[in-house]
Amino acid sequence: MPIKIQDxxxxxxxxxxxxxxxxxxxxAMHQDIRPLKVLILNLMPTKEVTETQLLRKLSNSPLQVxxxxxxxxxxxxxxxxxxxxxxxxxxxxxxxDQKFDGMIITGAPLEHVEYEDVAYWDELCTIMKWSExxxxxxxxxxxxxxxxxxxxxxxxxxxxxxKLSGIYTHRVLKPTSPLxxxxxxxxxxxxxxxxxxxxxxxxxxxxxxLMADSDEAGVTIVKTEDSRKFFVTCHAEYDAxxxxxxxxxxxxxxxxxxxxxxxxxxxxxxxxxxxxxRSTGQLLYTNWLxxxxxxxxxxxxxxxxxx
Length: 307
Fold this sequence. Notes:
Radius of gyration: 20 Å
CATH architecture of the largest domain: 3-Layer(aba) Sandwich
Number of helices: 10
CATH superfamily of the largest domain: Class I glutamine amidotransferase (GATase) domain
Structural class: alpha/beta
CATH topology of the largest domain: Rossmann fold
Helix content: 25-40%
């Protein structure tokens, strides 16, 4: 949340130069408040787990946020109770005439499927195009980020020789960005993917800005220069046991997975993981919601996209 100070206080210029949001008494007295509207397109098969992880991060804020959960209409998932979808999820036709302050598009286990062969690709493209005029700021997560790179900029991913799985060290490249308010220069976050794009691919698109990377995990956080789209390849919202569940699931499938790196103490799956990314996850989602949604979205939500 912003801090409120007296009008013309000399510290105002210093704080604003450090990208710290301050609110004068005059602005505070004339500020209108309304709940934020955030739409979550949940493409993960384990919908209840994913929605809980995201809502945990979005809820730890003084902001009032109204969440709408969205599912695809062109594909019905088989790993979730249909009653849960009927009770808590809506479809695009029911929200397409609305405007939203923020939107999150999750990942999906589709890395080995060509984008055009994804069952709901046409619907996803429609939603991504729609978001440019109906959503103030969109957060693309993991496979959702790679799908958006491809759809908006024609960037194709490459494959690792083996799955990237574990807790990796990442660098903050833009330390003055409000997105990294409260971050250390180096932060830890889970990664779980088989694909990547390169920094050179990002640099080839003038609208894109590389915000964080990793020696081992590569491109991690990217945003557009207008701060309307964020692309995040790490899973800072993961629970302590998420990577462990993925590891044992792959073992049961006979995939012979590598032990997630830097995750189990002594690389022994018998040892429970020690979480060192929880604060990163909270800061990342809170800063995105605060500085790039709440602080910049128009008060009249219906005016989104009219510029």
